């Protein structure tokens, strides 16, 4: 059985909105990942089952390895269909904000969402949610927004309305935000939920293959290249990998090709902190991705050195400057955080 994570008042409040709403819009963060798309489509399938007019809108493109997901073809990309999306957002009865905690995380969509008279609900698991939604379902202790969507639907009494397609989306989000249940995945209720999703007929093994084993040859070669260049800092229990724009061209890089790279250095014995620096092709900046295992707070380091944030074990930020400068700043950060990086236990 599941414990009641979401407060009853929030369940009742949203159930009331659901009763009255017809036009519903679901939005998620820029650079949508498996959990952003999984939770959005999981909720979308449910809203369809309740005969709502529902639309999922994301700021920009999502990776190819999520395109198999049922409903993904109906996702609206804001950077392509701004006018239509603006209309949907302005005319919505309810806007569901999924898997982000601040309006800045939806980029160019922020204004439209902020100015819409729609009722707004936040369903998210990032720390410190900003105050822009009437209902705030924020649970950083839960490993994915998709799990929260499952819990919300069930608590409203609609488990039986979850379809196989909806279950596939929810499962995908739970799986990707835990690295295939290898981190943030010790809560035993996760496995109860998986069992419930399996009862809907999902093939979890096939989903794993569709998401993680559909690499292009160029992605795998890029991975090999990046790992060859990897820098390991044994005295800091850390490692760094990087990818310049030039290297991206050399390996026919397309969006999503470096997804997950940042986790690889953590498979080295004694490395507990990993950094991935990628030259952005749209903005003049270096995108920083950080991952840690155990107690090392990479969100604190991201905030202090790269104007970013995120979770304890997965965070990111941005750096405006050259790759060499970004690497220097990273090395300064290592020095500053050396006591925490080398702490026992
Ligand atoms: P990723 O490395 O997958 O891009 O990001 C991991 C996590 O770090 C995200 O889920 C998000 O919480 C956080 N994050 C990434 N980039 C930024 C950023 O620029 N600013 C903030 N505040 N958080 C970020
Ligand atoms: Mn998430």
TrEMBL record:
Coiled coil: none
Domain DHHA1: 250-335
Record Pfam families: DHH (PF01368), DHHA1 (PF02272)
DDH domain residues: 23-174
A single MF term (Gene Ontology): nucleic acid binding
InterPro entries: DDH_dom (IPR001667), DHH_sf (IPR038763), DHHA1_dom (IPR003156), Oligoribo/pAp-PDE_c-di-AMP_PDE (IPR051319)
Gene3D superfamilies assigned to the protein according to its UniProt record, in alphabetical order: 3.10.310.30, inorganic pyrophosphatase (n-terminal core)
Protein name from the UniProt record: DHH family phosphoesterase
